[in-house]
Amino acid sequence: MLTSHFYQKCVELIQKNVSFVVATVVKTEGSTLAKVGFRAILSQEGKIIHGTLGGGCPEGLLRKAAKRVLEENTPRTFTIHLLDEEESIREMKTPRGDYDLYADSFCGGTMDIYLEPCCKDVRIVVIVETEDDYLGEKLKEFSSILGIQAVTVNWRILSLLEKREKPTIYRDDFVVILTRGRDDVEILNYLSAIRPRYVGLLASHKRSKRDFGTLRKMGIDEKFIKSVRTPVGVSIGAITPEEIALSIVAEIVQEIRSKRLNKGGETNSL
Prior knowledge:
Blueprint: H1 4-15, E1 20-29, E2 39-43, E3 48-51, H2 56-72, E4 76-83, H3 85-93, E5 100-104, E6 110-118, E7 123-128, H4 134-145, E8 149-154, H5 155-163, E9 174-177, H6 184-194, E10 198-201, H7 205-217, H8 222-227, H9 241-262
Parallel strand pairs: 4-5, 7-8, 7-9, 9-10
Antiparallel strand pairs: 1-2, 1-6, 2-3, 4-6
Helix pairs in contact: 4-9, 6-7
C-alpha cells in the first residue's frame, strides 16, 4: 500500500533534478514474495532508495534494467522468473526476450515489473558575447516550445565566476558556443575539463580547423576535440537565424534520443 511518503520522495528527487525510476509490480504468477501494487523508487544507479519489491532477488536484478530505461527514457515492463539455480542458469543462456530476467530462487513464480523513468531536466547552455544575442534568443524560443530549459551565459561573466570556484556548466549540459570566433579556443579549453554531454560550435570549417589545431598544441585530448559538433546543427541548408536555431535544437533532440534509437526503441519519427 502506498503512503504519502512515497510521493514526497518522488517530489524531493524532482526538485533536486535527479533522475530516478519508479518500479511497480503489475502481475504475479505462482509463488512470489511481492504482490501486485508493490512499488519502489530506484536511483539512477539502480539501487532501491524507497519502498520494496518483495526482497533481494528481484531487486538486485533490476539494477541494469533501471539504468537501461533511464538511458532510453522509455518505460518498460520486465518479467522476472524466480527459478532454482540449475534452471535459472539454463534460461539465462537462452533468454526468452530482451525483457526477461532470471533469479536463483526456490519461489518458482514470475513477476511483471513496470519500470517508469523520471529523467532530470535537459538544459541547454548558450555561451554568447552579449546578453541580447539574437540567435541565442531564438535558440531559447525553440527550446521552450519543446519544453527544454535554455539559458544564455556571457563568457566574460562565466570566466569570472569560474575563477571564484562557482561552477556554472555541468557534464549533463548541452553547450552551444555562439561567440563567433572570439574566445572560442579559451572556451573549448575550459569545456574540455568538464566534458559536457554535447558541445556545439558555430564556426566555419576553416575556423574550427584552426581552433582545433591550437587546442592540439595545448595538449587537449583528441577525443574531446572530435566530439565537438561543428558546424553546429543538422544540415537543413539553414541561412536565417531562425533556421540556424532550428537546426541546432534539432541536433540536440537527435542527441537526446540517440541511445533510444541505437537500442532499437520504438519511435514516432515522421
